[in-house]
Each structure stands twice: as structure tokens, then as C-alpha cells.
Design brief:
There is one protein chain. The protein is mainly α. The protein contains 18 helices and two strands. Strands 1-2 form a two-stranded antiparallel ribbon. A hairpin with a 2-residue loop joins strand 1 (about 135) and strand 2 (about 135-140). The longest helix is centred in the N-terminal third of the chain and has 36 residues, at about 95-130. It is globular.
């Protein structure tokens, strides 16, 4: 008698139902412009001062080069593993695996701290409604513990919506995006007009940033601001055309740059640098209170909450699909590639990712101030993002190096721009590693301690190498012989409840 997979192979495959608009929604939600603006401008201002807009423009240059590299590689080899697959095939399986690994770890950490941020925003709403304590517990938005407890509920909600299908998730995200961007543009536009801080062209001059260390630290944070547009490439196998994923990612990236620039200028028109740094994660709420009376002053807070929920959901989606690509190469266990028979999504992997993020969020409660937790997470993720973006751009330059003989335009697009972008991020990350290593003479669990800031990225890399070694010598993953990812249509993915043996991935 035919198996369930043979009778109905459709649900066991990733469904191709997404278009450019869906890719934009996923990429924009994952980048989370409103969240970055709302909670991150104060952190950037601590390093760049009034040159924060200049820093965001400067960081856009290498990121655009990375995005063009992704688009070029995607036309050549669409795969939901994206950088993991491309780097593995072009440079080698070990750097390829590390590319996929740091994406996975970075997204999980992002979910952990964004859950706490979401909880903090919900608590700010409750405070506005006059509720400042419950069951004897103070509802303090700056408390990591209370914010995390509320954020765990948000993690469960977004996991359920991610499992029930990407199409439904992107529709929800598009609605949230329209609302939050409308609110953000209205308030920031009004701030640009009525702000009492005098505008200066020096705000757009990166040469006026205080020191090379401040530029490097600020650039890594700014790269983190832009991080997320590549989520559009993680749904290649659910997108009708591979070019739709590239268009979605590039459109979202350019839109994010415009929003970051408008947001940073608006904040500086209304707040001094001291006010911006002091308010930290509550900066957008502070902006709303300065510009409008209640209930209108709460609209930016509502937009921030929508952005936090949307970015949580859009982080689950690419992470689960990245682990799916790794699992079908046997570099991760088979549990990660189980596809839900009804919704066609990697449901088990999605739940596992949520559970790991929730565990990390609970462990991070040891950092008592939410602002310190955010700074620690952002610095750690920023370094790993620079690493995997750089490796992917380098893979583009190496793979298409023959374009150097095919004319100046193709050589510039396929080799020169990717290579320069990769070297820029490698140089930036290397300088920052050196700076962290020399800034402290002892170890202390504090975001101001250089050794502590290096510890987390180092643990990511060591854990990734250990997992890769297990996959190569214990699991005997063919990926480590060929460096090539499995074609999405070469195997039949196991559905939930199917207990039979998994077919071997194609090594071609």
C-alpha cells in the first residue's frame, strides 16, 4: 500500500506560493526598523553622538554590496540555506557550516532579547493605563526579569503563527508594517518640522565621529540595524521565482535605509544627545510624549509593539528554514527537517527554536537592566553578522571570478563590489576584536568589559566547530565531502508522524 508521502507529496514539500510583496514583508519585518529606531538610537548615539545619521549612511554602503552578492548568488543557486549553501560550495564546507551556524545562533539570541523587548513594550502600555504592579510585583519596563516573563508569552504566540504557514504570517506582517510605518513617518516627519534642536550638516559627516574605536563600534551596531533583509532569501523554496526573493530583500533594504535616516534625524531634532542616550529603549515613547498629548502619544508605543511582534515572527521563519537546509544535508539531526503535513512548514524545528530562545531569555535574566542586556546581545550578534555577511560576499567574488574577463560592468558587479564589501566587514570585525581584547585587564560579566564582549561570539564559533566536527565524523554528512547543499527537489521531506528511515541526501 502506498505511503502517505507517495499518496500526497505536496504537503511534504515547501509550497511555492510567495511573491515579491511577501519577500518584502518578511525582510522588512525581520529588519524591524521601528524596533531598531525605537530602542537602538540611544545606543548608537552613545558612540557616534550627533553623527548617528552619518554612521547609518556609512554602514549602508557595505551592506548594499552584501545584498547585491546575495542577489547574484541567488540567481545562480536558489536554496533556503542561502549563505550556508553558497559558501560551502564555493569556499569550503567548514566556513559554509559556520555561516549557517552563526545565522542560526544570531537569530535565536535575537529572538531571546526581542522577546524581552516586546515584554518591556507591553509593560510600558500597562503603565500608561495606570497599572504599575500586579500580585505584589512591580511592572517595571526596565526590569529584565519581568519583561522576559511577558516576552515568553509573545514567543509562544508568534511560534504558533509561524507554524500555521508563511503565507498567513506574511499577511499579518504586512498589516503590522503598514500601521507601524505610517505612525513612524507621521511622528518623525512632524519632529523634523517642529524640533527645537538646530539641524547641522555635520550630522551627515562621519569624519567628525570622535575616534576609530567609536566608528568601529558604531559601524557594527549599524550593521546590526540593517540585519534581517536577507530573511527574504530563506524562503526561496516557497517563492514562485528566485528573482522575487532578491527583489524583496533589496527593496526592503533600501526602505530600511530611508527609515533609519529619517528616524535618526527626527530624534536629533527633538532630543539632545544626553536625552537620547538616557532614554535608551524608551526613546520612541519619549518622542511621542514630547510631540503629542494622550492618546496620540501612545501611538509610537503601539507601533513599537507591532514591530517587536513582527520581528519575532519573522526571525522564527528564516531560522527554521535554515536548519531545514542543514538537516537535509545531515549536518544537523533529522528532527529539524520534519515538515507539517497540513501547513507545509518545518513545524518541529520552529518549536525547538522557540524553546531554545526562551531558555536563553531566562538565562539572560541574570543581567538585571534591560538596556545592558540589549547592548550585550547586539554587540555579540553584530560581530557574527559581520562574519557571515563577509563570508557570503567573498563566496560571490570567488564563484564568479571569471567575470573579471567578461567586461568592466560584470566584473564590478560580480567580483569587485562583493570582495570590497567582504574585506570591509572583515576589517571592521577584526579591529573590534583587537579593541575588545585590549580594553580590559580582567574578566567581568558586564557590557563594558572587553573580554566579556568577546566571550559570547567566541562561544558561538567554538560550539559551531564542535557541531561541524560531529556532523563530519559521527554523522558522516555528505556536505563535508562535497560542500554542496542538497537540492530542495532531490529528496522527499519527512512529514510529522512519519517514522520510516530518511532518504539519503543527494550529493551531486
Amino acid at each position: 500500500m502506498p505511503s502517505a508521502v507517495q499518496q500526497d507529496p505536496g504537503p511534504a514539500r515547501m509550497r511555492r506560493s510567495l511573491g515579491v510583496k511577501d519577500g518584502v514583508a518578511i525582510a522588512a519585518s525581520s529588519t524591524a526598523a521601528t524596533t531598531s529606531i525605537g530602542i537602538g538610537m540611544g545606543t548608537l548615539a552613545a558612540y557616534a553622538g550627533r553623527q548617528t545619521p552619518a554612521l547609518l549612511l556609512l554602514a549602508f554602503v557595505p551592506i548594499l554590496g552584501i545584498a547585491l552578492s546575495y542577489a547574484r548568488l541567488n540567481r545562480s543557486e536558489p536554496n533556503c540555506g542561502s549563505g550556508y549553501t553558497w559558501v560551502g560550495r564555493t569556499i569550503g564546507p567548514w566556513p559554509g557550516f559556520l555561516t549557517g551556524w552563526v545565522v542560526l545562533v544570531g537569530n535565536v539570541i535575537f529572538m531571546a532579547y526581542t522577546g524581552a523587548v516586546t515584554g518591556s513594550v507591553v509593560l510600558q502600555f500597562l503603565n500608561k493605563l495606570g497599572l504599575h504592579s500586579m500580585w505584589g510585583l512591580p511592572l517595571d519596563p526596565s526590569s529584565t526579569g519581568i519583561s522576559t516573563a511577558v516576552g515568553l508569552v509573545a514567543l509562544v504566540v508568534v511560534t504558533i503563527t509561524a507554524i500555521t504557514g508563511v503565507r498567513a504570517a506574511t499577511r499579518l506582517q504586512m498589516g503590522l508594517l503598514i500601521f507601524e510605518y505610517a505612525v513612524l513617518l507621521v511622528f518623525c516627519g512632524y519632529a523634523l518640522v517642529v524640533g527645537d534642536q538646530q539641524f547641522s550638516l555635520s550630522w551627515l559627516n562621519p569624519l567628525e565621529i570622535g575616534s576609530p574605536q567609536a566608528v568601529a563600534q558604531g559601524m557594527v551596531l549599524a550593521v546590526f540595524f540593517y540585519w534581517g533583509w536577507d530573511a527574504a532569501f530563506s524562503v526561496n523554496e516557497e517563492t514562485r521565482s528566485s528573482t522575487d526573493a532578491a527583489r524583496g530583500g533589496l527593496i526592503a533594504l533600501v526602505v530600511m535605509m530611508g527609515l533609519f535616516l529619517v528616524g535618526s534625524l527626527a530624534f536629533q531634532r527633538v532630543m539632545s544627545t544626553g536625552e537620547l542616550v538616557h532614554n535608551g529603549p524608551q526613546a520612541l515613547t519619549f518622542l511621542g510624549a514630547k510631540l503629542a498629548p494622550e492618546p496620540w502619544a501612545s501611538l509610537p508605543l503601539a507601533a513599537l509593539m507591532c514591530s517587536a511582534f513582527a520581528s519575532l515572527q519573522s526571525s522564527v521563519i528564516p531560522t527554521a528554514r535554515g536548519t531545514l537546509a542543514m538537516a537535509r544535508d545531515r549536518t544537523l539531526g533529522p528532527v529539524w527537517q520534519r515538515v507539517h503535513p497540513r501547513y507545509g512548514s518545518p513545524a518541529v524545528g520552529t518549536v525547538l527554536i522557540m524553546a531554545i530562545a526562551a531558555l536563553l531569555a531566562v538565562l539572560a535574566v541574570g543581567i538585571p537592566k534591560l538596556n545592558d542586556m540589549i547592548l550585550t546581545a547586539v554587540n555579540s550578534i553584530g560581530l557574527t553578522v559581520a562574519l557571515y555577511y563577509g563570508l557570503t560576499a567573498l563566496a560571490c567574488a570567488v564563484r564568479f571570478r571569471d567575470s573579471l574577463r567578461a567586461g568592466a560592468v560584470r566584473a564590478l558587479r560580480d567580483v569587485v563590489v562583493p570582495a570590497v564589501s567582504a574585506l570591509s566587514l572583515f576589517g571592521l570585525g577584526g579591529y573590534l576584536v583587537w579593541d575588545y581584547a585590549t580594553m580590559s585587564d580582567h574578566f567581568e560579566a558586564n557590557p563594558d568589559n572587553g573580554w566579556f564582549m568577546l566571550l559570547l561570539p567566541a562561544l558561538f564559533i567554538v560550539a559551531g566547530l564542535a557541531t561541524a566536527a560531529w556532523a563530519k565524523w559521527i554523522r558522516h554528512a555528505p556536505y563535508f565531502r562535497t560542500g554542496r547543499g542538497t537540492d530542495a527537489d532531490a529528496i522527499t521531506l519527512p512529514m510529522d508522524g512519519e517514522g520510516g528511515p530518511l532518504p539519503s541526501p543527494v550529493e551531486g
